[in-house]
Amino acid sequence: MIDRPKTVPLTLIFINLNAVIWLALGLTVASQSHPALPDEPLIRWGMAGLSFAASVILFGLVVFLVKRSRIAWFGAVGFLALTALLVIFDDFGWADLLVLVINITPIILLITERAWYLQSQPGTA
Questions:
Q1: 52 lies in which domain range?
Q2: What's the total number of domains in the chain?
Q3: Is residue 110 a part of any domain in this protein?
Q4: CA distances from 83 to 4, 52, 58, 120 (A)
């Protein structure tokens, strides 16, 4: 059996931090506190809903990563990569750089410790 690497809790912390950022963005957009968004309700609620959905997905992925689900590992790497690409192709500033680091760090940690996450059965190497 492969013992749990020391980087697993750090990975989960980064993914949870990412989820909290998405939740905060959703709350900011829904409360009309974001100064750069249009006042159109459909756009505002669409963005808030997508932000809340991203937060729920990330929190769910953390739960299943703790249980070492193969699907969750692939889902986490894919979802984090997709959100990193969205950040890169958006208007890029200091806040985007911080969010990009918070997105890429768990991707790197997930890939480097993939043997632990993708182990098919406990007790096998």
A1: 7-117
A2: 1
A3: yes
A4: 27, 14, 11, 28
The C-alpha angle with vertex 77 and arms to 73 and 78, in degrees rounded to 5, equals: 115
Distance CA 60, CA 1 (A): 25
Instruction: Kindly report the pTM of this predicted structure.
Output: 0.87
Q: How far apart are CA 28 and CA 108, in angstroms?
A: 29
Other C-beta atoms within 10 Å of 71: how many? 9
Per-residue confidence (pLDDT) for residue 73, from 0 to 100: 95
Residue 125 counted as domain residue: no
**Cα 88 from Cα 100, distance rounded (Å):** 8
pLDDT at 96 over 70: yes
Structure tokens at 123: 């007790």
